Amino acid sequence: MNPHRTAWLFLMPALLVLGIFFLLPVIAALGLSLTDYDLYALANIHNLRFVGLHNYWALLHRPLFWTALGNTFYFVAVGVPLSIGTSLASALLLNSPLARFKPFFRTALFAPVVTTVVAVAVIWRYLFNTKYGLVNYGLSEIGLDPIDWLGNPHWAMPTIIAFAVWKNFGYNMIIILAGLQAIPPELYEAARIDGASAPRQFWHITLPMLRPTMLMVTILTVAGYFQLFAEPYVMTEGGPLQSTMSVLYLMYEDGFKWWNLGVASAVAFTLFAIIFAVTMLLLWFARRGERAEGGRG
Amino acid sequence: MNPRLARILINGLLLGATAVALLPLLWMLSVSFMSPGEASSLPPPLLPTHPTLGNYRALFAQAGMGRYLVNSLLVSSAITVLSLASNLMAGYAFAKLRFAGRERLFQALIGALVIPAQVAMLPLFLLLKYLGLVDSYAGVIVPGMATIFGIYLVRQYARGVPDELLEAARIDGAGEWRIFRQIVLPLLKPIMVTLAIFTFLAAWNDFMWPLIVLTGQEHYTLPIALASLAREHAQDSELMMAGSVITVLPVLLLFLALQRYYLEGLLLGSVKG
Known about the structure:
The complex is a heterodimer.
Chain A: H1 3-32, H2 39-43, H3 54-60, H4 63-95, H5 102-114, H6 117-127, H7 134-141, H8 156-181, H9 185-193, H10 198-226, H11 230-235, H12 247-257, H13 261-296
Chain B: H1 3-32, H2 54-62, H3 65-96, H4 102-112, H5 118-130, H6 137-141, H7 148-158, H8 163-171, H9 176-187, H10 189-205, H11 208-213, H12 222-232, H13 237-257, H14 259-270
């Protein structure tokens, strides 16, 4: 048989699925975002009108969109550094020659990652319950006033961020741990002979050597955190006072609660554009930093 | 620093972090055995005074948990088996078969990874509605029947299959399909296990797409059922914790059993391609 034909036969099932159920819908979403597709169009396609960029324009004048965007940026800007910081710290601890029971600690710290978001979000809702939650009980034991964690607009997002850090840090911990283990031990030996202290070794060997790992971890985590949805859906329903309404939650409500699929597609594409732009920005920063470093050395 | 002090500090910190990671899960397990209302008292009890299976019984007898458990098993298994088949074939083709435009097509696929899945969801819903698949098992399964990540993972691994082995089989007159099944697949077994557990866990835990496509309770998977229960039964913490246990325990056990493969896949998938 012709080798080219064989290859295409092997590729066919996967390419068909990805083409029909991913690529085609993505292109269609771009088209959909230029129409006023709503409940009436859902009932009868003849009600569909082309509106150009109107959905995007209207989005810019919609306070709820800016609220959702602000909340999402808040979640990313605070959640990503906290997440990665926790991952780095726990990976450093696990990598220490002084640490004991490493396999046990590694598995235990990773366990939250494989749990179902919905199920553990439900747990957190009870742990952070104002009246009977363990967290507030702990606060009262040390003489602090109870906090209405998920019912106070100032505390709801921090609580969701804490939840996300708890749920996700294990993932990057494993990747960073592998990065740490790939650093040649000779580098540390040479530094020790030169009399470099532990903090100096961390600053001048560990961090520079981890750089590619940290960049990749940051990009993946940022992209993931921009897609905040299940946590507010289960823990706060976007409230209180829309303080945990995320961009994706807005897309979900626009699209599948109010059936404004045109508007929702514009929201989805805007989010995509933002994630793409932020990723490019991170790559650009990383490359610039690399060049600066190369110039110095 | 004094090495003894450093050892105590490092292990103490690890112990503290582990406590924070595990306590919510242990608390869930404990509360799931409490009688209704027991957890809502002060001080919050850590252990049930009279452990009971009542919450589990209520969930299975009245809330249809058995059905949702079967739904989750069915949907996740189907996605795992089907996507494994298509990803293995495609990943092998990208690694070992020659065809025009191979590298460019692969690069295009990797490039498509930057598109968040949610962008596709609105038209996908319309497409499945047109196909009559909304609110069915197929509606959840079909979009998951192949993944770029899976193809990438298999390709990376399959590149290690020696070409001489395949050439020798071809010279012996073996067909391409037979070579794939009898020579390649056995060599790909470790990556098959890795990809299978990855896919199963992701399908089991998936929330947004099933929430969208399953409009009636009949086909709910566990996370969707749990989210809907949580809105109805916000006050019944004991019942909800039993529901969470049923949802989380299967994947947690699966992970513990196949941990090595899972973590390997995580690292393979995170290496820059």
